[in-house]
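Sharing in case it's useful to others searching the archive later.

Someone asked me privately for the predicted structure of TusA-related sulfurtransferase, so I'm posting the question and my answer publicly. Question first, with the sequence:
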Amino acid sequence: MTTEELKTLKSDKVVDARSMACPGPLLAAKKAIGDVDEGQIMEILSSDEGTKSDIPKWCRKQEFEYLGSIDEDGIYRLFLKK
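And my answer, the predicted structure tokens:
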């Protein structure tokens, strides 16, 4: 998805992991995904740059659809579809 499409995407679940260092955001996402139904969108907020590679790898392993990310002033917004 394009950055503009991601900016207008409505997330069903938002995980705020901005204060966490690696691997905290990934662990928070793993915990939260249980609250997301099939076909819903989850957004992960992180200030840890490693999250940009961890989440897409995890999505591939779990067969979730990684939709992309937006970088906003050092905060990464990553989107996936379960």
